[in-house]
Amino acid sequence: MSLRLLAAFLVGIPLIAADLRLGIIGTDTSHVIAFTQALNDPNAKDHVPGARVVAAFKGGSADIEESASRVEQYASELKDKWGVRLVGSIQDLCPVVDGLLLESVDGRKHLTQFQEAIHCEKPVFIDKPLASTLEDALHIARIAQQAKIPWFSASALRFSPIQEMRSQDMTGAIVWSPGPLEPHHALDLSWYGIHGVEMLYTLFGAGCEAVSRISTPDSDVVTGRWEDGRLGTLHTQRPYGTYGAVVFLKNRTIVANTSIKPNYTPLIKQIVAFMQSKIPPVPNLETLEEFAFMEAAQRSLEQGGRAVEVHKPAL
Q1: Would you tell me how many other CB atoms lie within 10 Å of the CB of residue 183?
Q2: DSSP β-ladder status, 85-87 and 51-57
Q3: Are 288 and 141 in contact (CB under 8 A)?
Q4: How confident is the model over 185-229, as pLDDT tens digits?
Q5: What digits encode the pLDDT tens for the residues 147-185?
Q6: 3-class DSSP state of 298
Q7: Sheet containing 219-226, strands listed edge to edge, beginning at the edge strand earlier in sequence
Q8: Gap between the Cα atoms of 204 and 210, Å rounded
């Protein structure tokens, strides 16, 4: 035992653990700035203690405007304002971090980047979307299982006030969210509709058995039937719109259409707790079922809105 530890033990002084060091993969989303400010600035209104962002790999996707137009801007802000070290590869992050934030806005990149990240042997948070296809999502989960790498993926909407609307008396629910599409994401709900899917799964949990979907240029209506007979419906709006929910209980109805909005602080708290415990706050199989849900919705759309079975993912 070191002299510091011995002295603390003898006088009963609690030791404060050093902040975990986090590394970012992908600087092409505003999340990297919001997360870094919350973690690195102790004077920030919504400061989350316990971890700091210390290094970042820029990444980026030249064929997606939302990525190409932001990657350098956010990388420069991380470096100049927050003192984050920029590195040339994901491998360069390995020796200087205790955990990884895979933030690339392009879900197509996540499988390849995760395959590199597992060599760091550190826990990984994968920002939404986990992937751009069900196949890639399953591949990520399987290689993580083989490498024994803890991971989780979630939208900030999962930890919004919609959590407080969950009830054992719920008989059904409707949620709504923005639903812009991105042509490179074949599983089109994964680009932005994932927020609404996460809201549904926050209320219902896993266990959806069939999905139907109809679509217009302005919106989608996606309805899932859960194994216990309850129905959950997602209504997306394009190009953007609000978030909200109606939850039907046995004896009353709960409506929330102003309090449900993106708030990164609860998500960041969950990320820090995960990096410390290595225990995902969202079951990996539930996250994978969300992608099976979106895959079934895609096939339903292609088949004129017919209900399509959700094939339960297995690792």
Answers
A1: 9
A2: parallel
A3: yes
A4: 989 999 999 999 999 999 999 999 999 999 999 999 999 999 999
A5: 999 999 999 999 999 999 999 999 999 999 999 999 999
A6: helix
A7: 253-256, 244-249, 170-178, 231-237, 219-226, 208-215, 308-309
A8: 14
Contact yes or no for 200/234 (Cβ under 8 A): yes
Q: Residue 119: how many CB atoms within 10 A of its CB? A: 12
Q: What are phi and psi of 309, to 5 degrees?
A: -65, 140
Tell me whether residue 210 is in a domain. Answer: yes
Contact 146, 307 (CB under 8 A): no
- Residue 66 tokens read as 């939302």
pTM exceeds 0.90: yes
Structure tokens at 191: 């680009």
Residue 270 in domain: yes
Tokens of 19: 């902040």
Distance of CA 271 to the CA centre of its chain: 10
User: What CATH number is given to the structural domain containing 116?
Assistant: 3.40.50.720
